[in-house]
Amino acid sequence: MTSRYREAYADWRRNPEGFWAQAAREIDWITPPDQIFDAKAGVYGHWFPDAECNVCWNAVDRHVAGGRGAQDAVIYDSPVAGAKRRITYAQLLDEVSTLASVLQNLGVGKGDRVIVYMPMIPEALFAMLACARIGAIHSVVFGGFAAKELATRIDDAAPKAVLTASCGIEPGRLVPYKPLLDEAIRLAAAKPHAVLLLQRPQVAAAMSEGRDHDWAQAMQAARAAGARADCVTLKATDPLYVLYTSGTTGVPKGVVRDTGGYMVALKWTMKNLYGVEPGEVFWTASDVGWVVGHSYIVYGPLLHGATTVIYEGKPVGTPDAGAFWRMIEEYDVTALFTAPTALRAIKKEDPEAEHLKRYKLKNLRTLFLAGERADPATVDWAETILGVPVVDHWWQTETGWGIVGNPVGLGLLPVKHGSPTVPMPGYDVRIVDEAAQPVPDGKMGSIVIKLPLPPGCLPTLWQNDARMYESYLAEFPGYYKTADAGFKDADGYLYIMGRTDDIINVAGHRLSTGGMEEVLASHPDVAECAVIGMKDALKGEQPCGFAVLKSGVTRDPAVIEKELVALVRDKIGPVAAFKIAVTVARLPKTRSGKILRGTMKRIADGDEWTAPATIDDPAILDEIKASLQAKRL
Ligand code: COA
Ligand code: AMP
């Protein structure tokens, strides 16, 4: 089939508002949009400014009303808890409307923030939808973050309530959440009024009188009273959620997602980008704590009337490298979306794909990858063993959906390994130099998107228009700065090669090296430090910290290095995967005092490097190399 992509993209180019007005017809509005885009509102404009709607209605009630009540909405499979569960759309409506009334009883209403700090269990999805139902703004925090990171988010969002569970389950260890949450609330200045906690059988959490409420008891009481909350009317421009993501400093950015534009964009992608039909099973193997989980575990599939999958497990070790194939067979999955690192983990354990021989993946049509660069070797391996198209696509927490992809629903374009393919309608992607001038095809530059961003992308940062402007819009006037670098080829295919800021990507997780440096610098023996992302065959990158000790420190450097590793785990969390700290005598700097992180990275990666002309003392680079060699890195 020839792809309709060029036609769709040209349609959007010709008449962007007409394109999105057409896409908006797929949504059940309370007040349909009259105006499609208001360029004068907000930081760069607002989509569907006069429309009213409710996301939960579109994701749940609408399907029950439309005859999908008996269809599975959610499949939960947890090899780590030994649990499986199917939830129909009718049951989902019951769970969500009851939980929404519990939230109302806790004093949560329209515009209030609710932090969701939960593992990959269906209740996390119920919590998000219950908030959406009553117009509360959820902010999901990934379970791998430590108390301090959680406290930072609590302080910024000032939530009325926190929804949590007694534990997460990592292979071989339980992660009790309540002590982390209690510590975070102790650290935070903004104290939530209520905590609603789901006791899981693996860990019993201690409850505080007054503030803490038992999830199961509250649900039981609401059911006994027949209490259910209705969907409230929201403006399309009202926030649905705030999702914190790593910024260039240790303070995360609160990415705001609106209500109407997000629905329009996600619904469009389910059919046109992912090629999925309502009623089919769409599995995103990520976590609800990340944007990929928000958009394609929760909202996208449910808005589309598809069945979504919540998998509480890993690609390997739960119990083996056949886990993904078992899931695809057992639940008739038509499309799997995961991060390349998950495939590299499977490939490392089972390079010949022996486990795959035990399963029949008869419904699988496409494998989608995102979250980090899909290296050609991994894509090639996956295509060979699965025999289906492997489609990389590039996006960010900020955009909420794919900027560049291969639109399976419009007809697959030829796949070029190493490229996530072409810009989706809505995105005018340019490669520019420092002066915002276009660079020729094949030449690396900064990747920017011409404003306005399409529906679904962030309208701003939480209560911080100034930071939104400074972070994304100031450097290239008229454009959104993605902070990714790359190039375009003569066919218009994009290649995304790396970040232009201090963000690194570890196992598909976005982390700030600046944030890690702040932690290392807080150690009493550290005078100065630098953290870089070192190449890693499995995780793409892994953080590596260099620390110069204060003069007069006589303690064993090896002990201090261990303390630094423990400190990052304690302050940021295990998700930082910070395992390498190296004490060095000096850090390489330019004559103006700028630390040469780029050159340090090239040395650590074993790439070719030369001492920059501006370096203060080139001998320091050899010292860095020798320190890494001494550690066999
Ligand atoms: N709660 C608590 N701890 C968590 C956690 C969670 N939700 N998720 C991860 N961690 C911990 C891990 O247990 C690990 O701890 P350890 O240092 O004690 O071993 C640490 O954080 C680092 O985790 P990770 O980098 O994920 O490494 P891993 O060895 O556990 O797993 C992969 C490696 C490749 C299997 C895994 O990273 C993976 O499946 N990645 C997919 C990424 C993804 O879905 N990204 C989302 C964008 S699409
Ligand atoms: P996050 O906001 O956590 O989704 O991380 C977004 C960042 O991950 C992007 O800015 C890229 O640096 C990187 N990224 C995500 N998807 C891809 C991809 N398909 N190819 C290359 N890099 C990617």
Number of helices: 18
Instruction: Provide the CATH topology of the largest domain.
Output: Rossmann fold
Major sheet strand order: 5-4-17-16-18-19-20
Largest sheet: 7 strands, mixed
Structurally, the number of domains stands at 2
CATH superfamily of the largest domain: ANL, N-terminal domain
| Count of strand segments | 31
- Poorly predicted regions are none
How does this model look, in words?
Helices cover 32% and strands 24% of the residues. It has 633 residues and is α/β, with parallel strands linked by helices. It folds into 2 domains: 5-313 and 393-427, Rossmann fold; 503-630, ANL, C-terminal domain (GMP Synthetase, Chain A, domain 3), CATH 3.30.300. The strands form 10 sheets. It has a 7-stranded mixed sheet with strand order 5-4-17-16-18-19-20, sandwiched between helices. Helix 16 links the parallel strand 30 (540-549) and strand 31. The termini are far apart. The protein binds coenzyme A and adenosine monophosphate.
Task: Give the topology.
Blueprint: H1 5-14, H2 16-24, E1 37-38, E2 46-47, E3 52-53, H3 55-68, E4 72-78, E5 83-88, H4 89-105, E6 113-117, H5 122-134, E7 137-140, H6 147-157, E8 161-165, E9 167-170, E10 173-176, H7 177-187, E11 194-198, E12 212-214, H8 215-224, E13 234-235, E14 239-245, E15 253-258, H9 260-272, E16 281-284, H10 291-303, E17 307-311, H11 323-330, E18 333-338, H12 340-349, E19 366-369, H13 376-386, E20 390-392, E21 404-405, E22 422-423, E23 429-432, E24 445-450, H14 465-473, E25 479-488, E26 494-499, E27 503-506, E28 509-512, H15 513-521, E29 526-536, E30 540-549, H16 557-571, E31 580-584, H17 597-605, H18 619-630
Parallel strand pairs: 4-17, 6-7, 6-8, 8-11, 11-12, 16-17, 16-18, 18-19, 19-20, 30-31
Antiparallel strand pairs: 1-2, 3-13, 4-5, 9-10, 14-15, 21-22, 23-24, 24-25, 25-26, 27-28, 29-30
Helix pairs in contact: 1-2, 3-4, 3-5, 3-10, 4-5, 4-8, 6-7, 9-10, 12-13, 17-18
The protein binds coenzyme A and adenosine monophosphate.
Adenosine monophosphate (AMP) is lined by residues 245, 291, 370-374, 392-397, 420, 484, 496, 499, 505, 510.
